[in-house]
Design brief:
The complex is a heterodimer of chains A (771) and B (124).
Chain A (H helix, E strand, L loop, with lengths): L10 H71 L4 H13 L7 E8 L13 E5 L5 E4 L28 E2 L3 E2 L6 E11 L2 E11 L1 H14 L2 E5 L5 E3 L2 H6 L9 H5 L3 H10 L9 E6 L8 E8 L4 E8 H51 L12 H36 L2 E7 L4 E4 L1 H6 L4 H4 L3 H7 L5 H13 L5 E9 L5 E12 L5 E10 L1 H50 L6 H33 L6 E5 H11 L1 H6 L3 E6 L3 E7 H17 L6 E8 L4 E7 L33 H11 L3 E6 L5 E8 L3 E3 L1
Parallel strand pairs in A: 19-21
Antiparallel strand pairs in A: 1-2, 1-7, 2-3, 4-6, 5-6, 6-7, 8-9, 8-12, 10-11, 11-12, 13-14, 13-17, 15-16, 16-17, 18-20, 20-25, 21-22, 22-24, 23-24
Helix pairs in contact in A: 1-2, 1-3, 1-7, 13-14, 14-18, 15-17, 17-18
Chain B lengths: L4 E5 L3 H11 L4 E5 L2 H10 L4 E5 L7 H10 L8 E5 L4 H9 L4 E4 L4 H11 L5
Parallel strand pairs in B: 1-2, 1-3, 3-4, 4-5
Helix pairs in contact in B: 2-3
The chains are: A alpha+beta (771), B alpha/beta (124).
């Protein structure tokens, strides 16, 4: 059963995590982008709205001022043109000042002649109308009272003297002592016949302007103020008023020194002579009016040298931004959540669910169900998986079948399997193997030593030393071994092991595996076959021997019978020599027959162990000479020569002269028989350090095959090679060997390098060499 | 009248002496010691009949016989095998090579003469 999926590695958990992280990062990125790009935009819009408001305020103020200015100039020009009778002036001037009551802000106006100009008797002779508490324009002549101070020295009067026509002078703002209204006076010079006649004035109520600034400031959510040319507040910031309750009189400059309003004054003063373009200025002030970062806009009015100002604390800027952000963030979060939910839903529906379905199926079955929507990737996966599963099943079945077939084959061969691990020196057998060893599977175990214990002592080396050598020999791939084991009942079982080695690249054995067979029956049948073969061979040899004997007996018998027959037939007619010859032939044949019979007798004696040696001190070289002489005729017939190499002149030793002569003659006779024409037969005789007589004879002719170098000494056997050339009983070498061995010596044959063979013997016999 | 020419092949000198004794008067005889010499002799002069021993060195009688029987120029020659090998199997071997007759040693003088006469036209 596969273990359940850890949370750490779960894909579903990862999907959750990824979606959560994407949500966080998308949110953070969008916030960052907004703060980078949107905030300055909002700040800029704030500046623009401030500027727009200021310009509107400025325009309004200018409008008011223009009205006042126009009225003042109108008054001056009326004074110039009208006849200077009091009645006309009293009739016309109030109408002009009142401007038919349309302009509420003009609260007063009049003409102020030079001393003694209008009336040489009167120093003060002003014509002034002001609005009373009901707003009705009323003539005031307080200024003309002797008690009243002369107006000619007023600050709104003196500078006007130097003005040109159509120029005006603006007074400082002030609180009218009578009406307590906030006012400003515009003065224009009156010229009559190019001579300065006096001054016309218009009083302008500033309440409208102050209200406008205040309203606008509220609109901007900031502070607004108007400062005149001397630095006095015409309209002062509301907040400052709240904090520092002052009377309604124009604020003294020193008030501004408190807080950073000082700054405003500074700016105003420093920008007093600036051009229009430069008269609009934004400033950022730290620790401003609200003890806060403040954005300040100052606009200068060149004509009156007033300054209109608006300030907004930066924190008040944050308000719309925060508002915007809050909204944006809400939408953002909602959008993101919807978006991610859709993604999550899709992943879950289209990936995770089908996948989990596959996992679930695999948990409880080997095959996957082929669901209807087989045309998607999971369908393809299912198809391929099932295909592979079927292939796997098929190969499993084939493997099982082939394994069963193999097992049946092993069973039918009565073979046991074995596996040997060269590293751990352990063996692994199957049941059949243990049966072969006559042990239970548990008894046999897997130790090599268990096997060693039951191996037949004679075969122990094979199983240990030889097998180890095979393991260590990198060239050995296949190894077969036959050995005996002793079973519990002390019976012997032949076992054949046949293994194949698996080796490393360097030849070191890793393991071997192979089979065990019970060879006992095979060995038994082999033994019986061998015995049968031997018996048949012996029988065949006997038949061959008899056939040979028949041939060998018949030849001399033929001679005896034929020549005796001739003698009988021709006893009367034949000459005496002829008859004698017949007898000689008969005798020769008889002797040959006798020799053959003697050979047979010798062999049977030797085989029966009844040979008696007549050892006497004899010279081997003499025997060699005798044999050579006897075979001289054959040598000549076969065109052969003999090379005698006698190391010593005489080789005396104790041996049976008759038997050794038989041996030497037989060897020489054989050498002649098997030599090619015109070759040399070499004979060597010597003694060695051990006092042994050494004899060797070698010829050149028909070679003896290597596998027959020993068998030619068997009775009745002759070398197969020159079958057609052989004459003889096939007993010669057998008898010779028996004779030599009876002398405790040894006779053997060696193949010559060229053709032919070398026969050697040695016999111990206290050899004495005489030079 | 010219005597028929018989080539006798045997490695045993004694056997040749016996044949000389029996046939010497009636036939012209030539003796050789083995199969090889027999082939040489036949190539020099075609005999009217060949008496062939079986066991001989260098080349035995069976081989020489089959060579002669396989040569068109000599295939017609009557060959009588004379051998000390007396088994039926051995005589069959001899006859199977194409020999006309197989006589085992020791043989009767008359039976040899009869056999020779059977295969050779002899002046009587």
């Amino acid at each position: 059963m596969p273990k359940s999926i850890a949370i750490k590695t779960s894909i579903i958990r990862k999907v959750h995590l990824i979606i959560f992280l994407s949500f966080i990062s998308a949110f953070m990125i969008s916030n960052y982008l907004m703060s980078r790009d949107v905030f300055p935009l909002i700040a800029n819009q704030s500046d623009e709205s401030m500027l727009k408001t200021s310009n509107r305020v400025l325009e309004k103020i200018q409008q008011e001022l223009n009205i006042a200015k126009t009225l003042a100039i109108s008054l001056a020009s009326i004074a110039n043109s009208l006849p200077h009778d009091k009645k006309t002036l009293h009739n016309v001037l109030p109408k002009v000042i009142n401007a038919q009551g349309i302009i509420q802000t003009v609260v007063g106006g009049g003409i102020w002649p030079e001393p003694f100009k209008a009336d040489p008797k009167l120093e003060k002779n002003s014509l002034f109308w002001g609005k009373n508490s009901q707003g009705k324009l009323t003539y005031f002549d307080d200024y003309n009272q002797p008690s009243a101070p002369a107006y000619h020295n007023e600050s709104w009067y003196i500078p006007v003297k130097n003005l040109k026509p159509n120029q005006v002078h603006w007074s400082e703002s002030y609180i009218d002592p009578y009406t307590q209204q906030h006012m400003i006076t515009v003065s224009a010079p009156i010229f009559i016949e190019d001579e300065f006649y006096g001054v016309s004035t218009i009083d302008l109520n500033l309440d409208n302007i102050i209200q406008l600034i205040t309203d606008s400031a509220v609109q901007l959510d900031g502070l607004g103020f108007l400062v005149d040319s001397t630095g006095l507040f015409i309209s002062q910031p509301k907040m400052a008023l709240d904090q520092q309750p002052l009377d309604k009189s124009p604020l003294a400059l020193n008030i501004l020194t408190t807080n950073s309003l000082n700054f405003v004054a500074d700016k105003k003063l420093s920008s007093g002579n600036h051009t229009d373009n430069e008269s609009i200025k934004f400033f950022d002030v730290n620790a401003g009016i609200n003890e806060d970062d403040t954005r300040v806009l100052l606009l200068n009015m060149p004509e009156t040298q007033w300054t209109v100002g608006f300030s907004r604390s930066k924190s008040s800027l944050d308000k719309p931004i925060n508002h915007f952000l809050r909204k944006a963030a809400t939408y953002q979060v909602i959008t993101l959540i919807i978006f991610l939910f859709i993604i999550y839903f899709c992943i879950k529906k289209f990936l995770i669910k089908p996948f989990m379905k596959l996992v679930f199926q695999l948990k409880y079955s080997n095959k996957l169900l082929e669901y209807p929507q087989m045309n998607d990737e999971f369908g393809k996966f299912t198809e391929l998986f099932n295909q592979r599963y079927l292939e796997l099943e098929k190969s499993k079945r084939q493997l099982r079948e082939s394994s069963e077939n193999l097992q049946r084959a092993l069973d039918s061969a009565h073979a046991g399997t074995l596996f040997f691990d060269a590293e751990t020196h352990t063996l692994d057998w199957d049941e059949k193997s243990s049966m072969i060893f006559g042990l239970s599977h548990e008894e046999l175990g897997n130790k090599f030593d268990t096997l060693i214990e039951i191996v037949h002592p004679d075969d122990l080396d094979k199983v240990t030393v030889d097998f180890k050598a095979a393991v260590d020999d990198p060239t050995v791939i296949h190894y077969e071994i036959e050995y005996r084991v002793i079973l519990a009942d002390q019976s012997i079982r032949w076992v054949q092991g046949s293994v194949q080695f698996i080796r490393e690249a360097d030849g070191a054995a890793i393991s071997c595996s192979g089979l065990h067979f019970d060879l006992t029956e095979k060995k038994a049948s082999e033994a019986s076959v061998l015995a049968k073969d031997n018996a048949e061979n012996a029988n065949r040899l006997k038949s061959e021997f008899l056939a040979n004997m028949s041939h060998e007996l018949r030849t001399p018998m033929h001679g005896i019978l034929s020549f005796s027959e001739f003698g009988i037939k021709k006893s009367d007619s034949a000459e005496r020599e002829k008859l004698l010859q017949y007898f000689v032939y008969i005798k020769t044949s008889g002797q040959r027959l006798l020799t053959l019979l003697n050979d047979l007798l010798d062999l049977s004696k030797v085989e029966a162990g009844k040979l008696i040696l007549n050892k006497q001190k004899t010279d081997l070289n003499t025997i060699i000479d005798t044999c050579c002489r006897e075979q001289q005729q054959h040598l000549t017939d076969s065109k052969l020569s003999i090379q005698l190499d006698k190391k010593q002149a005489r080789l005396n030793a104790n041996f049976d002269a008759t038997r050794i002569t038989q041996v030497v003659c037989n060897l020489l006779s054989n050498a002649i028989k098997f030599s090619s024409a015109n070759t040399v037969i070499s004979i060597n005789s010597d003694t060695n350090d051990l006092g042994q007589l050494i004899f060797s004879i070698d010829n050149h002719g028909t070679p003896i095959p290597a596998n027959e170098l020993e068998t030619i000494f068997d009775p009745f056997i002759q070398s197969s090679k020159p079958k057609s050339d052989i004459t003889g009983t096939g007993l010669g070498l057998a008898i010779s060997r028996e004779f030599i061995e009876a002398h405790d010596g040894k006779l053997w044959a060696e193949a010559n390098k060229g053709n032919g063979a070398t026969f050697k013997f040695f016999i111990p016999g206290n050899a004495e060499a005489t030079i | 009248m010219k005597k028929p020419y018989i080539l006798a092949v045997d490695d045993e000198e004694l056997n040749l002496l016996i044949l000389e004794e029996i046939l010497g008067d009636k036939y012209e005889l030539n003796f050789v010691k083995n199969g090889r010499c027999c082939l040489d002799s036949v190539s020099e002069r075609l005999p009217d009949l060949i008496l062939m021993d079986v066991n001989m060195p260098i080349m035995d009688g069976l081989e020489a016989c089959s060579i002669l029987k396989n040569q068109p120029s000599t295939a017609h020659l009557p060959i009588v095998m004379l051998s000390a090998l007396a088994n039926d199997a051995e005589s069959n071997d001899g006859l199977s090579t194409g020999a006309s007759a197989y006589i085992t040693k020791p043989f009767d003088e008359n039976s040899l003469l009869d056999t020779i006469q059977l295969y050779i036209l002899t002046p009587r």
